[in-house]
Amino acid sequence: MFKEPLMSHRLPDESLDRLxxxxxxxxxxxxxxxxxxLRALYDLLKWAPxxxxxxxxxxxFVKSAEAKKRLEPALDEGNRxxxxxxxxxxxxxxxxxxxxxxPYLFPHADAKSWFAGASDEALxxxxxxxxxxxxxxxxxxxxxxxxxxxxxxxxxxAKVDAEFFAGTRIRSNFLINLGYGKPEELFPRSPRLPxxxxxxxx
Length: 202
Fold this sequence. Notes:
Keywords: Flavoprotein, FMN, NAD, NADP, Oxidoreductase. Its cofactor is FMN. It is an enzyme of class 1 (oxidoreductase). Belongs to the nitroreductase family. HadB/RutE subfamily. By secondary structure, the chain is an alpha+beta fold. It has a single domain, classed as NADH Oxidase. It is 38% helix and 16% strand. It is built from eight helices and five strands.
């Protein structure tokens, strides 16, 4: 008897609302986020698709007051107060040495050799693309666990890299504040482009 694939069933509207339609970028986040929740979040985002399963994304969950003080000097003025007030800020980065993990992550081919002699520019392009995918999955995972997100740029990447990734080949990409949003402080939702202005079916 034919069985429908597991992924063929549409999620209920309540789930789609949480992940997409009513999800917002929050500037004001409060509450507390436990370490167990952050570990559960990673255990979801790690399933993000990446080229050759390379998984170059690296994540620093900046939670303690001491760690927040280390991050503060790198923040643009407009992002400083909300980031310092958020329960957790995630530094989403990518490791230029991602290929070292490929014998474990992609064991059915000699994928590490594919990147032998690659320039830092090529490695950074690969890492940024796939690490960004993982960062997006992080936000979906956070929303699925009941958290709100405030993704942003607006910081000095070089300062973050020097402070948090010194001695490594990890480079920061963007930040995500995590916590429980305050709906009363949201701006009215901005529009999105309709299908015919942003997409086509060929």
